[in-house]
Design goal:
Helix 2 packs across helix 7. Strand 1, helix 2 and strand 2 form a beta-alpha-beta unit. The relative contact order is 0.18. This protein is α/β, with parallel strands linked by helices. It has a domain of 131 residues: NAD(P)-binding Rossmann-like Domain (Rossmann fold, 3-Layer(aba) Sandwich), CATH 3.40.50.720. A 7-stranded mixed β-sheet has the order 3-2-1-4-5-7-6, sandwiched between helices.
Amino acid sequence: MVLDLSRTALLISDDGLKRLAAARVLVAGIGGVGSYAAEALARAGIGSLTLVDGDCVQASNINRQLHALTTTVGRPKVAVMAERLVQINPSLQLTPLHEVVTPENSAELLGPGYDIVLDAIDTFSAKLGLITACVRCGLPIVASMGAAGRLDPARIHTASLAESHGCRLARKLRKALRREGIEEGVRVVYSDEPFAVHSFGEHSPAEGDLRRPLGSISYLPAMFGLQMAAEAIRLLLADIPKK
């Protein structure tokens, strides 16, 4: 069966469909944000997706991650997500990479060449490394800021990193990028809702995570991911005449 994109064509035209079908997109981080972003891109008709994540599904992911089910716990996130996406679009060119993004391998990951990158990584050093690598090679990137510790979907925005406000992660990232000589070229999805400081949990060494977990709700990461996919599609179709 071929993915039926007739409803999408009515909105973005056949030329728009062809542009998306020819697009190569990298999604880094296939968690609560990245899983929803990847699926929205696949359902929109993106022709080639590369998924990068070194984690496996954990029971604590089930409250917010699209691929996390009682039957998928323990399996690599990229493998589970790849199986799901090819059932949506069997002709999708899909590359699942079960590896951790690091500052050291970011440039290498971009080697195959992409039209746009979506950053849904939750480790600051890796996020900084990937964004830096993209900007330096002139590759458009849409980055997710913090989705945890928040409840209000009306406070989610899409803007340039320089224009973002009210997000501690975005502020920290701006400072770090300035030290790299970068002040523009980064689109972000962020929330200006104050972070719920009471939402920190205890360490979970049994799950292999030495960081304190952050409180999260089912819909906020999903909405971040959908906003990222929307921004990526908007950028890809920017010069296609509207119907």
